[in-house]
Structure formats: C-alpha cells, structure tokens
Write a structure and sequence with these properties.
42% helix; Endonuclease I-creI; 10 strands; elongated; 3 domains; 4-stranded antiparallel β-sheet; 311 residues; alpha+beta; 21% strand
Length: 311
C-alpha cells in the first residue's frame, strides 16, 4: 500500500471513523466503521476500502424519510481491525489511535510521518469533515467571498485534529470553543478566507483529495476567480474615498498628514481634511472667546448682597 494513500485514509478515518469493542462481556469483538451520506455509494468509501487492500465490507443504503441515504464501510473481525490499525496507525491522531488500541488491546504504535504524508492525511481529514463555500459580501451586493472550513469536536484544550490539520496546510485560524445548547462537548472550527490561501490549501492537498471535495473547491475558486477585483476598502467610508465625513471634496481641499503638536510623537499615516481642521479650530476659538466674555462679565457685575450691605 502506498504510504501517501494510507495517510489520506488515516485522515479520513480521523474525521468520520470510529472503533470499539462491541458485544457482551463474554465475547467482545473489535469493530471499525465509517458512515457517509449520498445518493449512491460514496467514492471515498470505495477508495478507503481499496487503500486497505479490500479489507472490510461496504454496505447500504439505510433510508430514512427526509434524509440522504446512508452508506458505510465496516470491519467487524479481529484480523480486519488489526489490519486497519497496522495500515493507518503511523498517521492517526491520538483519539482514533486509542480507540483502535482499546478495541484490540494493543500498545501504542510510534508515528513516523513526512510532510507529504501529513498533507495526504490532511486531504483525507478534509474529505471527511471539510468544505469550501461561498459567502455573500457584506458591503458589495452581488459579490462573494470564499471560505474553507473544518469543524471538529474537542475538549477544553482544543482539537488535536484541527491543530494538526492547520500545521499540515500552514494556513488558517482555529476558532472556538463553541458549545451547542445542551451539548456535552465543545466544537472548534478551522477557517481560511483569502482567495490566495484557499487556493494554496486546496492545491497542497489536491493530489489526494477525493473527487467530491475537489470539484466543490474548484467550483468555488472558479466563481471567485471570475469576479473583478474590488477596490480596497469601501469608497463611502474607507480607503480611496473622495469626500470627508462632512462632505468636503478632497479634490479641492488640501490634505495634510496629522501629527501631534505636543511631544515627539511620529506622524500617523492617517490624513485630515484641512477644511474640517479650520472649522474645528474656528469653533474652539469662538468657544474660548465666549468663555472669556462670560468670565469678564461675571467679575464686573456687582453682587446684590454686597450692594445692600454697603448701603
């Protein structure tokens, strides 16, 4: 079996698989299983079984009204589960490794991974749990931004699988924890938004990605690549605006950089409309004159109480 294909299969099992010892106390039987939904037998399940040299059984569909058909791969004998563990253990994360070890009663298997194997594992994990989608732009109607995301359960310290995935693809950020109402475990989400980073992540995993996620990513990248480049910032209030907030035209008003007059602070990168600066200075001077006039008038006006006392 090719090591990179096995690394992909380990990532896929880390995302959607489970292993346990099932049965009664008298006879505990190891079992490993992966479920996938789809209109037909998912290509990734067929590929997973092929990576394991045909070990395990494909089954389905299980049908339920209002839901997609459910298909599965399962290994339900000790020799088959031992074969799964021996084939995938070098690339599995600790959770699924412990599940297989508990099911089989084995000691830990030391990992040995290359960068290519980590990317193959990441592709399998993304095939199981990831997605690439389009989001509507918040301020430009008709435009979209892209998002690649993977959601995974974890504990108070985070998600080992997502941390490993982020290190493998060298991009994105992990958010969380998020707790559903009544949820017993916390959820974490890895995301990446910039088009260049989404393309880089998909290209890094592309040699091992399944057809469904590869085609999904290509459709999103095609839409994003066909959009004209937006000007940086919002012209109404951000970069490259033509008028200040008070409506003064920058083309006819001289612009100067703002710098602190007291102290040796370095000038900031922002600029200020000179018309607004003059208006503000004029308002301050008028206020100061009004305050001075009020103070002078108060000092010159005799106090009524003193006048009566003098008389």
């Amino acid at each position: 079996m090719d090591r990179l294909e096995r690394a992909w299969a380990a990532g896929f099992f880390d995302g959607d698989g489970w292993a346990a010892a099932v049965g009664n106390r008298a006879r505990r039987q190891p079992q490993a299983r992966i479920n996938q939904a789809g209109a037909a037998m998912p290509e990734v399940l067929i590929r997973f079984q092929a990576v394991l040299s045909g070990v395990g059984h494909l089954g389905g569909p299980y049908r339920k009204p209002g839901r997609q058909d459910l298909w599965w791969w399962t290994a339900s004998s000790r020799p088959d589960v031992e074969h799964v563990y021996a084939a995938l253990a070098p690339w599995l994360c600790s959770l699924k490794t412990r599940q297989l070890q508990i099911a089989l009663g084995l000691l830990p298997h030391p990992p040995a991974r290359s960068l290519g194997e980590e990317l193959a594992w990441a592709a399998g994990f993304f095939d199981a749990e990831g997605c690439v989608s389009l989001l509507r732009h918040r301020s430009h109607a008709g435009y979209f931004v892209g998002e690649a995301a993977v959601t995974q359960l974890g504990d108070a310290t985070g998600s080992e699988e997502l941390s490993r995935f982020r290190m493998a693809v060298n991009a994105g950020k992990i958010f969380g924890p998020f707790t559903d109402r009544g949820g017993a475990r916390s959820a974490y989400r890895w995301k990446v938004f910039p088009l260049a980073q989404i393309r880089a992540v998909i290209d890094a995993m592309r040699p091992w990605l399944g057809a469904v996620k590869r085609e999904q990513a290509d459709r999103v990248l095609d839409v994003l690549g066909s959009q004209p480049t937006l000007p940086r910032g919002n012209p109404a209030w951000g970069a490259y605006k033509t008028h200040c907030v008070n409506g003064h035209d920058y083309a006819t008003a001289r612009i100067r950089r703002f710098g602190a007059r007291r102290g040796g602070a370095a000038p900031r990168e922002s600029s200020r409309c000179l018309v607004c600066a003059r208006d503000a200075a004029r308002a301050r001077r008028e206020l100061e004159r009004e305050l001075e006039s009020a103070a002078t008038l108060t000092a010159e006006t005799p106090h009524p109480g003193r006048d009566r006392a003098t008389c």
